[in-house]
Amino acid sequence: MIWAAAGASSQPPLWTTPDPSSASSLSFPALVAQARPAVVAIEVKAKNPGPASLPFSYDSKRMYPELPPARHIRGLGSGFVIRKDGYIVTNHHVVAQAESLRVKLPSLHLDLAARVVGLDPRSDLALLKVESPVDLPVLPLGSSADFPIGSWVMAIGNPYGLVAIASKGIVSGKGRTAGDLSPFRTRFFDFIQTDAAIDLGNSGGPLLNMRGEVIGINTAVNSRARGIGFAIPVDLAKAVLPHLLADGRLKRSYLGIRIDPVPWQRATALGPGEA
Predict the structure, then answer these.
(1) For a Cys-Cys bond, which of 52, 71, 204, 245 suits 91, CB 3.0-4.6 Å?
(2) Contact at 8 Å (CB) between 270 and 233?
(3) Fold classification of 2-13+27-247 (topology level)
(4) Which position among 92, 120, 123, 124 bears the catalytic label?
């Protein structure tokens, strides 16, 4: 499997695997108490594109020369610690436009500068790193393949700036695609669907089973529905994260064809490539 690379070097494994001896289900209060310390708030400082972002169909600067210049805006997302020396998982769309990042761990009263280690837009995953004066609490990565629809789950994140909010629900579907989220991004995902409340600010936070294991990364809601959220399966994250750590991105192979111009119009096979 691809994610075996996580522990293939002299470095410690990138994530913690569940302890089989503690595989019993937790109560909701115990689950919140166990998982919450490893969930972080991510503050993003990015540049607003300014007048070009205004909803005008004509030249905004020419028609409105007094419009304010580009300025900095702030955003908030979620993430969770996977290794005690400061590696954190979140969504690509949370940090993609960031000029600076700060990570807050309320349980430890820490406010730390963060850097991006790797990004993968196609899976909407990002790996961050902070330098902490203490070991950080971590969440183990479970499996997104071995639980049935109807299983209890809990989402923890920072909706609308409210820190470390927990919401419960069930897995209401698996194998969802971007078409189930319209309007959304034009990427393909094998989403986990849940009715645990996921709102703005939850992006990048963990979706947990009742043993406190991450089974998904919360990423989106269906704007046409009420109470339907979507999470990236953790098994996909396990395949992507080692590449983000090693190379800063996931190098994908592809095989395609090219149609030659008229009059030949013959298909020419292309060799393997790297996206």
Answers:
(1) 204
(2) no
(3) Thrombin, subunit H (2.40.10)
(4) 124
Would you call 24 a catalytic residue per the annotation? no
In angstroms, rounded to a whole number, what is the distance separating the alpha carbons of residues 77 and 69? 26
CA distance 236 to 43: 25
- Give yes or no: 124 in active site: yes
Give CA–CA dist 220/214, Å, rounded: 17
For residue 89, what are the CA distances in angstroms to 23, 74, 110, 186? 23, 20, 17, 22
Which H or E run contains 120? Answer: strand 110-120
Per the annotation, the verdict on 93 as an active-site residue is yes
3-47 pLDDT, tens digit per residue, is 334 444 567 899 999 887 777 899 999 999 999 999 999 999 987
Catalytic residue among 123, 167, 172, 203: 203
Contact call for residues 85 and 14 (beta carbons, < 8 A) = no
For residue 170, give the amino acid letter. I
Instruction: Report the alpha-carbon distance of residue 131 to residue 83 in Å, rounded.
Output: 12
Q: Please give the distance of CA 68 from its chain centroid, rounded to a whole number.
A: 33
Distance CA 98, CA 45 (A): 6
Give the 3-state secondary structure of residue 21: helix
Q: Which of 93, 144, 167, 180 is catalytic?
A: 93
Domain map of the chain by residue range?
2-13+27-247
Give tens-digit pLDDT for 129-170: 999 999 999 999 999 988 899 999 999 999 988 989 999 999
How far does Cα 207 stand from its chain's mean position?
Answer: 11
